[in-house]
Write a structure and sequence with these properties.
By secondary structure, the chain is an alpha+beta fold. The chain contains 13 helices and 14 strands. The chain has a 6-stranded antiparallel β-sheet with strand order 3-2-1-6-5-4, with helices on both faces.
Length: about 450
């Protein structure tokens, strides 16, 4: 069909207006028949409104947001006093969302479940065609067992438009438009909905999945918060129990050590020695548990001060040499630094060195040598403790610095171990801004090392 006025001429007009252009174009297509032109113009406007509607609905992220936009967007397009949405869940339809206009009290609310096979909704889902009921009261009289219809009627609704939603041929759910006015719906309303039903279903499905992920995220966060609360309760209880046990355990140890200085026969002396040994172990465990409680609760406070590293380590080596003498183990201190300061908590740093030297002596064979090295390089202070023990397997190295990380190697003189010392050592070192590690091969001994940022260093 030839156009009376070339489109190019219209587009080139200086007074071009989109609505004018649309009317001129429709006029040329429809000829001079006003009714045809009006119908086509109404269809164009309808399509524009549906495009706007899908844009508004699609801007929602979660299911509640999308459905709220459905409520707002369909106002003026399809009559309603209430909109409801239900999801298909196995063989049931479950009410997921509803919104009513002011003045109406919802009775069919979220969570209402209805078996599809017991209703006519199955036919709507399978046929993928809307269903119109323009007299809900008469429908209820014909089907008095329909609980869902009774609830809707009790809300004041008198007509309904039930529209199916499906994605890739798979039924997703149903959209319910209901009105307090009888005979509110026509085929035009059903056709209008179906023009965007496919796009709407995709939006709803996308939003539903996003909502499920969000719900799982929130549940996960709530579970984490509860676990954190329980963990904090455990730490507090652990700290209280260990604190209450320390004093009586110390008293037992003092009494046993006193008894060892008295006149005892052989059996009595062995018995008292065992009491003292077990009390020492218990006291060590209690102190370790108190440290764990303090560290994990975030209550570890470091009283930092400049420490002369060479003097500090010389004292530690001398002290531990006395403990190593019964196993005929020598502890040798090597350093190429004359001076050097480390900014650290003296008590906690002594705990670090104690754990490293105690472990070295504990796992070294009699007659061996433990070497303590101190050196500065790359702006860091490095402390090494090298032993001639059995070495540590790669599997054991992975759990070495974890709480209660029991190793396959056993102490050479049957010494006890709480399995907490190196884990506590690691956290103390890290609290100082340092790092700790081990270099070891089975059968070749081990070298534990600590790197600390010095207050000042001279190579």
């Amino acid at each position: 069909m030839a156009l009376p006025v070339p489109i190019g001429h219209i587009m080139e007009s200086r007074s071009f207006d989109a609505d004018t252009f649309q009317m001129q174009l429709l006029s040329q297509i429809a000829g001079t028949d006003p009714s045809v032109m009006a119908t086509m113009h109404r269809r164009v406007r309808e399509l524009e409104e549906l495009v706007r509607l899908t844009s508004v609905i699609g801007s929602g992220l979660l299911l509640e947001e999308v459905l709220d936009r459905v409520y707002e967007g369909f106002d003026g397009i399809i009559p309603f006093d209430r909109i409801g949405f239900a999801l298909l869940d196995d063989d049931d339809v479950v009410a997921r969302w509803e919104r009513t206009r002011p003045g109406f009290e919802p009775k069919l609310t979220q969570g209402y479940r209805l078996p599809v096979r017991e209703t006519s909704l199955g036919a709507v889902l399978e046929g993928r065609r809307p269903r119109i009921i323009n007299d809900l009261v008469a429908y209820l009289e014909a089907k008095p067992t329909s609980t869902s219809t009774r609830l809707i009627v009790d809300e004041g609704m008198r007509s309904s438009l039930t529209c199916p939603l499906s994605v890739d041929g798979r039924p997703l759910g149903l959209m319910f438009f209901t009105s307090a006015t009888p005979d509110a719906y026509t085929g035009v309303h059903a056709a209008t909905f179906m023009r965007i039903a496919g796009q709407l279903a995709v939006m709803v499905e996308r939003a539903r999945l996003a909502s499920e992920l969000e719900e799982k995220r929130r549940a996960f966060e709530a579970q984490n918060e509860e676990l954190l609360r329980l963990d904090q309760t455990k730490d507090r209880f652990l700290g209280m129990a260990a604190h209450d046990l320390r004093n009586p355990t110390s008293s037992i140890l003092m009494a046993a050590e006193y008894l060892q200085s008295t006149q005892l026969d052989r059996d009595q002396r062995l018995f008292v020695q065992d009491i003292a040994s077990q009390a020492r172990y218990m006291l060590t465990l209690i102190n370790d548990l108190l440290d764990v409680s303090q560290i994990e609760s975030g209550a570890l406070v470091l009283n930092r001060e400049p420490i002369a590293a060479v003097d500090f380590l010389s004292d530690e080596v001398a002290r531990h040499s006395a403990f190593a003498a019964p196993k005929d183990i020598r502890i040798v201190f090597e350093t190429d630094a004359q001076r050097g300061m480390v900014l650290a908590d003296r008590v906690r740093m002594r705990q670090v060195v104690d754990n490293m030297l105690t472990n070295a002596v504990k796992y070294s064979p009699p007659g061996s040598t433990v070497i303590v090295r101190l050196r500065y390089y790359e702006g860091m202070c490095r402390l090494e403790v090298e032993d001639e023990g059995p070495g540590i397997s790669p599997e054991d190295q992975e759990k070495l610095f974890s709480y209660f990380g029991r190793l396959s190697a056993v102490p050479t003189a049957g010494e006890s171990s709480t399995g907490l010392g190196m884990a506590i050592t690691r956290r103390i070192v890290e609290a100082h801004g340092g790092t700790i590690g081990v270099d070891s091969k089975v059968g070749e001994g081990s070298t534990f090392w600590v790197m600390l940022p010095p207050a000042s260093a001279e190579e």
